[in-house]
Design a protein that fits this description.
Length: 337
């Protein structure tokens, strides 16, 4: 009887001791992970698994660490356990597993997993972004566009989704929609490495459908793309007109920066004028109203310099000399964005 009583008394203490040891291993693993000492992190998490092999947290942290080590096959097995545990890290485990499948060339399996995740969690912006990327890589641009738009409607501040949408739309020849998405991406992220490519694509899209024949410098041909998005065909024609505006006599003394501001303003205003009550969807109900308001505001100049500062010395200098205008821009977007 005394032995049984002693055992019952000792069992809670033993469980508490194991729990404290488990937490210590996880904590140490996270420290090693944060310092990029991934081998040491793995060792700590493996010690935690010896205490609780089904731990969602330990399996998730191991999967995350193996992804950092680019060992995607190892990461997959730990993702499976984390997903089966159905705990607080399950969404992150879905994202890791899907990314691992894609990295291993199993993009179709990745798509199935993300679609399953969306059925379970709804249009989570990260699931939509990753699924959209899979569709994009598979060449299914229509599905990529649709799912990315759902993700943006869920979380409009996710810069990567706007960037990817801009590329997907550009590849489909939807210039106006692409411009709107790229503008918003550059608003959120104007100075990163990937912003440079996005800005270059934006400028290309704003070029419109214009051709100049060799030997006929004074002749400009504007053509209508038969595959253009019918919803924005008139806006695309307007883009072409704007792209040749710098060649007009009245604009010959204006700088490239001034022309960019003028053309951006004209495009935003025209888009706002095209909007009707019946127009629905992300472009008509989010992008266009916002940029139309911006075009009629006092901060448009600051906005144009802001999104081009990384790639234009004039814009960068303007930003340095006009901090007050930048502050006004920030305040404007806090109220309107």
């Amino acid at each position: 009887m005394k032995t049984i009583i002693f055992f019952l008394f000792f069992l809670p203490f033993f469980s508490f001791s194991q729990s404290a040891e488990f937490d210590k291993y996880i904590s140490e693993g996270v420290k090693y992970y944060d310092s990029r000492n991934y081998d040491a992190a793995v060792q700590q998490y493996q010690k935690a698994l010896k205490i609780d092999s089904k731990s969602e947290l330990a399996n998730y942290e191991l999967a995350l660490t193996y992804v950092a080590m680019k060992d995607y096959r190892a990461a997959l097995s730990y993702c499976e356990v984390a997903i089966e545990a159905n705990g607080k890290n399950i969404l992150a485990a879905y994202l890791i597993k899907g990314s691992c499948l894609d990295e291993l060339g199993q993009t179709e399996e990745s798509i199935k997993l993300f679609e399953k995740g969306i059925k379970k969690f709804g249009y989570n912006h990260l699931l939509c972004y990753n699924l959209g990327m899979d569709y994009y890589r598979m060449g299914d641009l229509a599905k990529a566009q649709e799912i990315i738009e759902h993700g943006i409607e869920t979380k409009k501040s996710h810069a990567s989704s706007h960037m990817l949408l801009g590329y997907v739309l550009a590849d489909q020849g939807m210039k106006v929609k692409s411009i709107l998405a790229l503008h918003y991406f550059l608003l959120l992220e104007p100075t990163s490495n990937r912003s440079e490519k996005a800005y270059a694509l934006l400028m290309k899209q704003m070029g419109g459908n214009v051709q100049r024949k060799e030997g006929e410098e004074n002749t400009i041909n504007i053509y209508v793309d038969p595959n253009a998005d019918p919803e924005f065909s008139s806006a695309e024609l307007m883009l072409s007109m704007l792209s040749v505006s710098s060649t007009l006599e009245e604009n010959k003394d204006k700088t490239a920066e001034e022309m960019f501001i003028e053309n951006t303003k004209s495009m935003f205003i025209v888009m706002g004028e095209l909007k009707k009550k019946k127009n629905k969807g992300l472009y008509w109900e989010f992008y266009i109203p916002l940029f139309d308001e911006l075009a009629h505001s006092t901060v448009l100049d600051a906005y144009c310099y802001y999104i081009s500062q990384q790639f234009n010395e004039v814009s960068a200098k303007w930003m340095e000399e006009h901090q007050d205008h930048f502050n006004e821009l920030v305040e404007w977007f806090k109220k309107n964005g």
